[in-house]
């Protein structure tokens, strides 16, 4: 079924769907309907129309998946040579690459993002598996000197069954970011995609299985957070929960895991600043700040959703940014515009309400500010790239996450003031710094309260660079070698000799 991108796009626009879409759960190595026979509609945000359905699970499906994952912790995955685990993960990366066209088109349909963004997510997903494939046979402990009469060493053991709760903004790459290190460490997994975007996780589980992953090692149960999510995070056999999503749901997840003393990684929201100092390369900064907020239609937890700009360049910079924002073309993701759709109508409503609120408080809207439709079909869920100028520090658009293409501008008198503004939110996920002054850059990097700092390039880094938040943005780190820590436990063996 290796169709080209063009053939898939043609099939979708002429039939309103695609053939052979997954529609069940993936449990214990096979496709399964729901125990309760419920289904969920899957919408194309670019048209605002359902194009398929998938099984919607309940507690019984979750229990079947966790039991399969638990049995698999005692099976071949645990016992095989780590080098063989590496080979399977590498084959998975190759399988993702050879199915990239289909995966990307489906991701665009499911999520609404542009095809170019979905293609980049799929490349990233393959790269994540490749990166962690290279680590599976290098997870080694240490020896500890206790004197001549003892021998002590540590072993790194898989923690067991891991649960992965995935949001709708980066369905396939967020799934990979948790699954790949968990599998590399020898764990087994049960994954719940967001109910709005279940398809790519199902396809991924199928490809992992084809690559040689034994049954039960990676399971996917679709369904709502209140049914499947809460049953999974409170299941007593789950030893670690990796959650990416909103702060409020993160609190529920942590409470549910706490009852079983299961560990958690929480990647929550953000209100990350891009700080532009007057001495920066302003041409480069305009373009970078633009994509820091408008990539993925702003639906990124680490989006640069605040611009903190030095007063002397404020007017000029905002004017240029507004001009660029107005040039961006939005539309159905498969037509490859600059900006795709908002994934859910609820999210669109939320963005609209935030911008309406700012409008009614008299905030200057330098660009955008309205919901719109795909120009080709006059349908779909879209919001104009929006720029809100000169906001006071306590404005909700400065303190709260919008999760949409809305940039809030704050004006700083100098570097110290920029730092004060940057740290004055409840979040601490990312921060960007634009300056040619090395000292300013390094001092800000030292003092900003955020999990990642980007200097002169927002989103710089890759699977190699750890990612996670401070304060209400969560804790624990994903990606990089740090991303493995959640998935192994250290066992100490000490002997008298
Ligand atoms: P949003 O409100 O933007 O959908 P959420 O944080 O609620 O963000 O969703 C992220 C993921 O968490 C989704 O997969 C969702 O189904 C899941 N989820 C929602 N509620 C719960 C819950 N109580 N327990 C576990 N997972 C949940």
Overview of the molecule:
The chain has 497 residues and is an alpha/beta fold. It has two domains: 5-268, Aldehyde Dehydrogenase, Chain A, domain 1; 273-464, Aldehyde Dehydrogenase, Chain A, domain 2, CATH 3.40.309.10. It has helices at residues 5-15, 59-72, 76-79, 82-98, 100-111, 115-133, 171-184, 199-210, 225-233, 247-258, 282-294, 311-327, 345-360, 396-399, 415-423, 438-447; strands at 25-27, 30-32, 39-44, 49-55, 143-144, 150-158, 161-165, 188-192, 218-220, 238-244, 263-267, 272-276, 304-310, 364-367, 371-374, 379-383, 386-389, 406-412, 427-428, 430-434, 452-455, 470-471, 474-475, 488-496. The strands form seven sheets. The chain has a seven-stranded mixed β-sheet, with helices on both faces. A six-stranded mixed β-sheet has the order 9-8-7-10-11-23, sandwiched between helices. Strands 5-6-24 form a three-stranded antiparallel β-sheet, with no helix packed on it. Helix 14 links the parallel strand 17 (386-389) and strand 18 (406-412). The longest helix is centred in the N-terminal third of the chain and has 19 residues, at 115-133. The radius of gyration is 23 Å and the shape is globular. Bound molecules: adenosine-5'-diphosphate. Adenosine-5'-diphosphate is lined by residues 165-167, 192, 194-195, 224-226, 229-230, 233, 245-246, 249, 252-253.
């Amino acid at each position: 079924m290796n169709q080209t991108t063009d053939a898939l796009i043609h099939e979708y626009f002429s039939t309103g769907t695609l053939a052979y879409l997954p529609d069940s759960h993936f449990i214990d190595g096979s496709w399964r309907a729901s125990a309760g026979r419920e289904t969920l509609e899957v919408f194309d945000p670019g048209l605002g129309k359902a194009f398929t359905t998938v099984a919607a699970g309940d507690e019984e499906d979750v229990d079947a998946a966790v039991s399969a994952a638990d049995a698999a912790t005692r099976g071949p995955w645990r016992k095989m040579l780590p080098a063989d685990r590496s080979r399977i993960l590498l084959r998975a990366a190759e399988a993702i690459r050879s199915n990239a066209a289909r995966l990307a088109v489906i991701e665009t349909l499911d999520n609404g993002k542009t095809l170019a963004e979905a293609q980049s997510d799929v490349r990233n997903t393959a790269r994540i598996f490749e990166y962690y494939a290279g680590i599976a046979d290098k997870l080694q402990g240490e020896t500890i000197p206790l004197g001549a009469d003892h021998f002590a060493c540590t072993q790194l053991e898989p923690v067991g069954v891991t649960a992965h709760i995935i949001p709708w903004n980066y369905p396939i790459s967020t799934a990979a970011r948790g699954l790949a290190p968990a599998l590399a460490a020898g764990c087994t997994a049960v994954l719940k995609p967001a109910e709005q975007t279940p398809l790519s996780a199902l396809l991924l589980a199928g490809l992992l299985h084809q690559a040689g992953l034994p049954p039960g090692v990676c399971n996917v149960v679709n369904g709502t957070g209140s049914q499947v999510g809460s049953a999974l995070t409170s299941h007593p056999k789950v030893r670690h929960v990796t959650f990416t999503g909103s702060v409020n749901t993160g609190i529920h997840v942590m409470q549910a895991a706490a009852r079983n003393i299961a560990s958690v990684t929480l990647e929550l929201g953000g209100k990350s600043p891009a700080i532009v100092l007057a001495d920066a390369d302003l041409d480069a900064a305009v373009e970078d700040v633009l994509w820091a907020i408008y990539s993925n239609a702003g639906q990124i937890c680490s989006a640069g959703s605040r611009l903190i700009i030095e007063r002397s360049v404020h007017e000029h910079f905002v004017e240029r940014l507004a001009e660029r924002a107005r040039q961006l073309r939005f539309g159905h993701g498969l037509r490859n515009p600059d900006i795709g759709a908002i994934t859910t109508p609820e999210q669109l409503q939320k963005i609209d309400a935030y911008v309406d609120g700012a409008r009614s408080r008299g905030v200057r809207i330098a660009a955008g500010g309205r919901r719109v439709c795909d120009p080709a079909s006059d349908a779909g869920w879209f919001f104009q790239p929006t720029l809100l100028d000169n906001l006071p520090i306590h404005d909700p658009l400065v303190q709260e996450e919008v999760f949409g293409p809305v940039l809030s501008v704050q004006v700083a008198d100098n570097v110290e003031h920029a730092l004060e503004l940057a740290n004055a939110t409840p979040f601490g996920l990312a921060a960007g710094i634009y300056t040619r002054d090395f000292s300013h850059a390094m001092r800000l990097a030292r003092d900003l309260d955020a999990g990642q700092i980007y200097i002169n390039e927002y989103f710089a880094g890759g699977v190699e660079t750890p990612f996670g938040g401070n304060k209400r943005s969560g804790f624990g780190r994903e990606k990089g070698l740090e991303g493995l820590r959640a998935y192994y436990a250290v066992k100490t063996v000490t002997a008298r000799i």
